[in-house]
Design a protein that fits this description.
166 residues
């Protein structure tokens, strides 16, 4: 993958991580019943993450504009990489129970097409339904994402992620 495409993906993942952490802290405030000091600290972190995310989104917008004008094949490679993985999900031969996964993959493809057209800059990956897609994309930059503890992750690796009944 071209270095410019990797730079775009690295920045997209940085934004995704900040927004995930901000949401995690918001859930903490809603459900964990923190002390006033803990709540203050969590609110400060949320505000800091929102500002950082806003700045990173502006940086991503600028980087996309630069890459679009100077190295358009890198932008195409970045978008096509994502769409390629998502199209495999759409084409999966699975039970009707997996329809939400396919629908979400189709919606995400539409968002990537908006990136290609210059109508959108950031596409978030739903880690719940598209866990394998997110893990594949994360391998580009070597980053991981936290959704489960390592014990349940090891157990989950022995079966398809969506086969929760096994």
């Amino acid at each position: 993958m071209l270095k410019e495409a990797i730079a775009l993906e690295t920045l997209r993942q940085t934004i995704e991580d900040m927004e995930y952490e901000s949401g995690d802290r918001a859930n903490y405030l809603d459900y964990a019943k923190p002390t006033p000091a803990q709540a203050k600290q969590a609110n400060e972190l949320i505000e800091k993450l929102k500002e950082q995310s806003k700045a990173a989104r502006a940086e991503l917008k600028q980087l996309i504009a630069t890459v679009r004008s100077q190295q358009p094949q890198a932008l195409e490679e970045w978008v096509n990489y994502h769409i390629g993985i998502l199209q495999k999900i759409v084409d999966e031969k699975t039970d009707a129970a997996i329809t939400p996964r396919k629908n979400l993959a189709k919606e995400t493809i539409q968002n990537w097409e908006k990136v290609r057209a210059g109508e959108m800059e950031f596409v978030n990956i739903n880690w719940h339904f598209l866990k394998d897609y997110k893990a594949s994309v994360r391998s580009i930059t070597g980053r991981s994402f936290k959704t489960t503890d390592s014990a349940s992750q090891s157990k989950a690796e022995s079966k398809a992620w969506w086969q929760f009944w096994k």
